[in-house]
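User: Batch of two.

Assistant: Item 1 of 2:
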Amino acid sequence: MMFFTRIPIPVKIPYGQDYLDGATRYFPLIGYLVGGICALVYFLAQQLWSPEIALLFSMVSGVLVTGAFHEDGWSDMWDGFGGGWTKDRILVIMKDSRIGAYGGIALVLLLLMKFFALRDLAPGPILWSIWTAHVLSRIMAGSVTYQYPYARAEDDPTAKPSIKRPQPVDLLFYLLFMLIPLAFAPTLAFLWIILPAFLVRTYMAWYFKRWVGGYTGDCLGAIQQATEVTVYLSILAMIALV
């Protein structure tokens, strides 16, 4: 919660790399928390306003809770890979706090895609969709740390604290956390939404490995955002097919 959200912690817990490493297996729980808040805000706002306004409140709540942590990674990733042609240049651009044309355009399109996808889901299982998308997308992003190395050198002064590669037992936790929201799926056909999200995650992770040798925090944020939108679009596709 300290690393991925802006939610105040009622007790003083000192930061430590060991604590962060030990928390790796529980990262999907942030999806439960953030997704639950976004779904609750939508439900409450819809009692007073239109579904479109409720959606905007829901999206704003997600940004406030996380401090736009993953959205920032999405825009930085597009700036880096759009404007850089070598590993070093890509990493330097991604570290720049200023947002460029690639990042700005990508962020606007991402938010529009989220809004319109969720708007079309509003007559259906939107609360479950919001919750599930936040959980699955964080599982997809977190699983990349098991498969690929951190791209920045440990002695790089611009590198954020890297996360220890999860152990096989940690992936069992990821599987458990993934099964819980899927158990509440409106129909069994919705289980297919895992496949498109996994394909997007796999392609993006491979692309990052090819260009920069692994992942960075921005890369993981980009995967989380991309797979979250993929889940929304997949649910819409399943509704149209069944």
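Item 2 of 2:
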Amino acid sequence: MAKPKMDQLQAAVQNADDGDFLREQIGFVAQRLMGLEVEAFTGAGYGERSAELA
């Protein structure tokens, strides 16, 4: 499963400008980290309700 993702990542690196690629990757990582932080804080994933609110 990891191999296709690495192939996609490698293709994206080869086809993108360095600045745009880096900007997109930083944005993706920032969004993912914020999502994980919210999930840990609320106890529920995106679009879900925690057990306390259900």
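The mean pLDDT is 80.
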